[in-house]
Specification:
The complex is a heterodimer of chains A (303) and B (217).
Chain A: E1 5-7, E2 10-12, E3 16-18, E4 40-46, E5 59-62, E6 65-68, H1 77-88, E7 94-99, H2 104-115, E8 122-126, E9 130-131, E10 137-138, H3 143-156, E11 161-164, H4 172-181, E12 186-189, E13 193-196, E14 198-199, E15 204-205, E16 211-215, H5 220-233, E17 238-241, H6 247-256, E18 260-263, H7 266-269, H8 273-287
Parallel strand pairs in A: 3-18, 4-7, 7-8, 8-11, 11-12, 12-17, 17-18
Antiparallel strand pairs in A: 1-2, 5-6, 6-16, 9-10, 13-16, 14-15
Helix pairs in contact in A: 2-3, 3-4, 4-5, 5-6, 6-8
Chain B: E1 20-21, E2 26-27, H1 35-41, E3 67-73, H2 77-86, E4 92-97, H3 106-112, E5 115-120, E6 127-128, H4 131-141, E7 149-154, H5 157-169, E8 173-177, E9 193-196, E10 199-202, E11 209-211
Parallel strand pairs in B: 3-4, 3-7, 4-5, 5-6, 7-8
Antiparallel strand pairs in B: 1-2, 8-11, 9-10
Helix pairs in contact in B: 4-5
Classes of the chains: A alpha/beta (303), B alpha/beta (217).
């Protein structure tokens, strides 16, 4: 049975990756599972300079989901390269670094720096953050800006470039096309949905940041629909994510059109869940007598 | 971190203090406060729950020549109880709760403590007021010998904040067990941070016990 998949030039031994921001820098999970079993490890979003993040409360549970407003806290690219990459390099898996900037120049500088590091196999661009230079509009929601920032990063790196799309747009297919036209090798679909929860006693938002990103099973139907639409719109591999808790959820994304999947919030609840999902996918393929996982991809579009 | 259901709502595991060890297991002590603890309360004996732990650190034990003062507000007793037990008769415990009925495990605390100073918000047991008020009075009357004390505390944020101020004034070393919303418990989500003079620190990993002096209150 073949469960390997390719994302641009990246060969993944299986389609299961970890979603950025839910798996730390990998080492947090190394005592629970063998990272070499994963198709890829996607680390927490990094910026050129370290970022302190938002004040607490940063997370709040909601019905079948959670809101987070961590504020992109990270140790910065230099510390990551020196303190975390040597450890990650000891594992036989693909290391994908999620990164962001608050200007196009910062995105470019971050991509250049990361591309020079041995042991980083791919880049995932977070475009769901505000552009300081252009009145804090979100890079990933204005097609013109998306095209500019992706195009600039494309010129700055030869690593496989994955663009993580924001679901907080009217037409995700259009954003997908824009990102691919600007040079994306693959798309991550989807980032979190912006949400809010309010404490009825204090009459105040529960998060210090007021709003946060909704993740978990609550967003899965939205994510599956968006993967389905993006699959119709573009011709690059899609990494499907949003509320995947088990192998059945992962398979749903693959059938909708995803080449690979990323497990996010579920890592917080069951640290070994990504490995369970790999095993569950394998078991399903055996049951259904499917020899190659790629023959399952996008089958929801048939007929 | 303890699972409270097999479904997706509630979704996350809940963080609990390890109340005490029994022969072949451990106990948690909780107050029913929301959806998760309500499910726990209605759980049948013999049901099984997924658990991840123990996680995080514990109170650093005091030097032999110091008298530990342990401050507990409300359900904070779940966290400090095992410390009281371990200090076998050395600790002076300031145990505060809303009412007499909220003073859980009081008999057991008395068994293991050198002395227990009880206070309740409504005055139904012990002195009227909070554990912080009781500590303040104590420190005032022992001001000349404050060097012999060290403080450990778990309870609501205002209590911890108040005692951190007191202990700073009296130059007493104080450790507090912090609480924040927590998703993973293993240092990955960065949800449970508290602000310290050295940046944000994770309650699950660098804590829950932190030096009161390092926290930005």
């Amino acid at each position: 049975m073949d469960i390997s998949v390719t994302i641009g030039d990246l060969e993944l031994k299986n389609p299961v990756m970890t979603a950025s921001g839910t798996f730390g820098y990998g080492e947090e999970y190394a005592e629970f599972l063998d990272l070499s079993r994963l198709g890829a490890v996607v680390v927490k979003g990094l910026s050129l300079m370290p970022k302190e993040g938002n004040p607490p409360p940063r997370i709040v549970e909601t019905a079948s989901g959670m809101l987070n407003a961590i504020g992109l806290q990270n140790i910065g690219i230099e510390r990551f390269v020196h303190e975390k990459v040597p450890f990650l390099r000891t594992y036989d898996t693909q290391i994908i670094v999620n990164f962001f900037g608050d200007s196009i120049d910062e995105y470019v500088a971050a991509a250049e720096r990361l591309s020079a590091v041995d042991g980083i196999h791919g880049l995932e661009m977070n475009i769901s953050c505000p552009n300081k230079q252009a009145g804090w509009c979100i890079f990933g929601t204005d097609p013109r800006v998306t095209s500019q920032v992706v195009g600039a990063v494309r010129k700055a790196t030869r690593l496989p470039l994955i663009v993580k799309l924001s679901p907080n747009v009217t037409d995700i297919s259009r954003m997908a096309k824009v990102a691919v036209d600007a040079g994306a090798d693959a798309l991550s679909v989807i980032n979190t949905l912006t949400g809010m929860a309010i404490d009825i006693r204090t009459r105040k938002p529960k998060l210090a940041n007021r709003t946060g990103g909704l993740s978990g099973p609550a967003i899965k139907p939205v994510a599956v629909r968006m993967v389905y639409e993006v699959y119709k719109a573009v011709n690059v591999p899609i990494i499907g994510m949003g509320g995947i808790m088990n192998a059945e959820d992962a398979l749903e994304f693959i059938i909708a059109g995803a080449s690979a999947v990323a497990v996010g919030t579920a890592n917080f609840i069951h640290p070994t869940v990504s490995v369970d999902i790999i095993d569950g996918i394998t078991a399903f393929l055996a049951q259904e007598h499917i020899a190659d996982i790629s023959s399952l991809r996008g089958t929801a579009h048939a007929g | 971190m303890i699972e409270v259901g097999k479904g997706t709502d509630p979704l996350l595991k809940r963080a609990f203090s390890l109340f005490r060890k029994t022969g072949d297991g451990l106990q948690i002590l909780y107050r029913v406060r929301g959806k998760g603890t309500d499910i726990l309360r209605n759980m049948k004996e013999g049901a099984s729950l997924d658990m991840l732990g123990p996680l995080g650190n514990f109170y650093p034990l005091p030097p032999e020549d110091q008298t530990p003062l342990i401050i507990s507000g409300g359900i904070g007793i779940a966290s400090v109880f095992s410390l009281v037990e371990r200090l076998a008769g050395r600790a002076i415990v300031f145990y505060g709760a809303r009412t007499k009925d909220d003073l859980l495990m009081l008999k057991e605390v008395r068994e293991h403590a050198h002395e227990v100073i009880v206070s309740t918000d409504d005055g139904s047991a012990g002195r009227k007021g909070t554990a912080a008020d009781a500590l303040r009075a104590f420190l005032h009357s022992h001001a000349s010998s404050s060097a012999q004390f060290c403080v450990y505390a778990c309870g609501p944020h205002p209590l911890l904040k108040a005692l951190s101020q007191m202990t700073r004034e009296h130059r007493i070393r104080a450790y507090v067990s912090m609480e924040e919303h927590m998703a993973c418990g293993i240092g990955a989500c960065l949800g449970c941070v508290v602000k310290t003079h050295d940046g944000y620190k994770r309650v699950c990993k660098e804590g829950p016990v932190m030096s009161a002096a390092e926290i930005v209150w």
